């Protein structure tokens, strides 16, 4: 897959995941939020809390899951901590980290609390 094709496939996967969260009552607060420490694909609101969502797309769920590295999780934590600094409750805001796996057919597998702190 070329870089441009991969980029657009990633955007489509993020759109699919965002629609799913919104349909379940979790409004999207930010998309592709970038801080000094890294980027978070989607940030959704869960009442007073936040859900930081990493979207991984590949031919199948196993390959998508393999694409999440320890280094990437640290970057997501760093970006999340920076985003929390913009929130009224700051670091006291309840959070969870989800991973949404999207396969080549557009099916989604959601892992809530995929990694914690």
Task: Write a structural description.
A 5-stranded mixed sheet has the order 1-2-3-4-5, with helices on both faces. The protein has one domain: Trna Endonuclease, Chain: A, domain 1, CATH 3.40.1350. By secondary structure, it is α+β, with helices and mostly antiparallel strands. The mean pLDDT is 91. The protein contains 3 helices and 5 strands. It is 36% helix and 31% strand.
Q: What spatial form do the alpha-carbon principal axes imply? A: globular
Helices and strands, in N-to-C order? HEEEHHEE
Number of E-state strands: 5
Strand order in the sheet with the most strands: 1-2-3-4-5
Query: What's the architecture in CATH terms?
Result: 3-Layer(aba) Sandwich
- CATH domain fold name: Trna Endonuclease, Chain: A, domain 1
- Overall average pLDDT: 91
> What's the CATH first level?
Alpha Beta
The percent range for strand residues is 25-35%
Given as residue ranges, the uncertain stretches (5+ residues, pLDDT < 50) are none
Determine the N-to-C terminus distance. 34 Å
Number of helices: 3
Q: Biggest β-sheet: count, sense, barrel?
A: 5 strands, mixed
Helix content: 25-40%
Structural class: alpha+beta
What is the radius of gyration? Answer: 14 Å
Number of domains: 1
Describe the secondary structure blueprint for this structure.
Blueprint: H1 3-23, E1 28-34, E2 39-46, E3 49-57, H2 61-66, H3 70-84, E4 95-102, E5 108-111
Parallel strand pairs: 3-4
Antiparallel strand pairs: 1-2, 2-3, 4-5
